[in-house]
Amino acid sequence: MTRFWLGGYGPAMDGQADGIGLLAGDEGREATTLAYRGAVAETPSPSWLAQHPSLDVVYAALEADAQVQAFARTGEAALSPLGDPVAVGTNVCHLAVAPNGAFLIASCYGDGRVVRIGLDAAGRVVPAHGKADAAAALRAALFGDEDPDAPAATPPGDGVAASDPHAAGADRVSHAHAAAFLPDGRIATTDLGFDLVRFWKQSANGLILDHEVVLPLGTGPRHMVVHPSGHLHVVTEYSCEVFTLAAGVDGTWRVVSSTLSSPIAEIGTDFPAELARSRDGQFLYTALRGSNTIATLRVRGGGDTLESVALADSGVDWPRHHLVHEGKMLVAGQRSDTVTLLDLDERTGAALGIRHEAQVPAPTHFLPVR
What we know:
370 residues; four-stranded antiparallel sheet; 2 helices; 4% helix; 6-phosphogluconolactonase activity; Beta-propeller fold lactonase family protein; Lactonase_7-beta_prop
């Protein structure tokens, strides 16, 4: 049986989820059923989940509470809090755990903060201090901060969240949305509000801003996929595009191509959410909230070019997250309180139809149970 931990929105985020849930289904390409088994750990609005690379520990972004909490697996289908939650930034919406399990990166939509949080040997989150907060490093890089050792608990609304050299006016606000670990050890983060992809180097004291890639004004970079070819694909929430970035011989990243997620995507009506890839890297998928569809793109060349090939019904309302698993796709419908299981065409990669539907309260994220 295949199982998934489920993130969801609770009442504070206009949903009915009461914690991390469990979804179970048949294994293999012929899977036909899904069943929601209820909450396995009660916690408020765990909208994004991440797995420790070697320990049976799951991390939850508690979006409404501006906290990150670790949970240890205590049974076949049970999670229990591991230590106390750690405060991060407003509306923390994404977590990415370092491949060595030493720390995680929390991206905070509400105030634009990107926070590096240490993890101890047992997987517990360690309160950030020193230069652990990427927001402090960015503030120093942009504004010559006189106190580069400012603690990570600097209040929301400091310079990083309110100002940026690329801002066109006072109405632009920083919205950090995702982080990805790159093969060379650097970290990429998206800023949806400032239309930036930032690249960070790691140091003993935290993160150091390396450089930035500026996307066109108003595109809204949201989530990313690191492709086996070494390219970085970035989906934009406002312009419905996927930008492909590549690193030059000097390590500096740049945009090499951009493609509409679908030729019939409606800008201002459709808002892409997740970006996922097939296991072999031949296809990318993004969900368009609005038309509630799944767009399929084929990866061409050496990974530097994308081609839109199909658009299909997701079967849910407001597809917040989707995951390719064993040749099929799971889609989380945040507003319909449902999860669908879709068939995928092995040749074209396109979603073919809805195989099964399950009732799930305000689902926002899938994480396979290891």
